[in-house]
Amino acid sequence: MPAQQKKLIFCTAGLLSLACALGAAAAVGTQLWVRGSILRSTGALLVNASGPELHKFIGHIQYGLFSGQRVRQCGLGGRPFHFSFFPDLLRIIPASIHVSVILFCTVLIVFGLVGAGFFMLNAFGSPYETLQGPVGLYLWSFISCSCGCLIMILFSSEVKIHHLSEKIANFKEGTFTFKTHSEQFANSFWTILVCSLVHFLNALLIRFAGFEFPFSKSKDSGTITGAVDLMY
């Protein structure tokens, strides 16, 4: 492949890695990971609410990795309540999973920036061995893609398996009980998915640029060395 096309491919991959790192950083700092609605089930049962009356007991919840907001409906209008995971909710959430999600988000951002730098070095400079050559480019892309997948798996398990929304909704609630009425992942969660797919695409771009996969040996070289051995 001509050198100009390789430079274009590496520049494109570097810009995509940089965009992913910035997107992941923006996603970490927002409250747009989960959106949903919560039903004040005990209040609805007390008045036997149904149909239009049921909406008076349906509140809303929205949160990210560090903070969020819930709006409680008590039949008398919404009452907003802002919260933060650290230290307010540390006792009721699966802290180890939540901290792991934040840690992998940090790794995703760091290695996205590192990958962008090495892509640019390979585009405008002479590729070095190992860390700045094809093996390094595959390595940074693989680590970033793996971290993105782990973030989605861990956060999904925290929300769905450990019922994170219900734990947050019932935080500091004494008499009444809230149930999850609806729940969906929001923009920041899908941003991490896009980042993972882009890093996987970068690995394909490296291959498309003409680099062999790491630790692979061509059959021609083996044939040539075999012929040389027979000569001696």
Measured on Cα atoms, how large is the radius of gyration? 25 Å
**What's the shape?**
elongated
* Span of the ends, CA to CA: 36 Å
Uncertain spans, ≥5 residues at pLDDT below 50?
Answer: 221-232
Q: Strands across the major sheet, in which order? A: 4-3-2-1-5
Keywords: Membrane, Signal, Transmembrane, Transmembrane helix
Membrane topology: Multi-pass membrane protein
Transmembrane segments: 97-123, 135-155, 189-209
Subcellular location: Membrane
What does this protein structure show overall?
- With 232 residues, the protein is an alpha+beta fold.
- It has a single domain, classed as Up-down Bundle (Butyryl-CoA Dehydrogenase, subunit A, domain 3).
- Helices cover 56% and strands 15% of the residues.
- The protein is built from seven helices and five strands; from the N terminus they run αβαβββαααβαα.
- It has helices spanning 3-28, 41-46, 95-124, 134-161, 164-169, 187-208, 219-231; strands spanning 34-40, 58-63, 67-73, 78-84, 178-185.
- The chain has a five-stranded antiparallel beta sheet with strand order 4-3-2-1-5.
- Helix 1 runs antiparallel to helix 3 (95-124), helix 3 packs antiparallel against helix 4 (134-161) and helix 4 (134-161) packs antiparallel against helix 6 (187-208).
- The protein starts with a helix and ends with a helix.
- Residues 221-232 have low confidence and may be disordered.
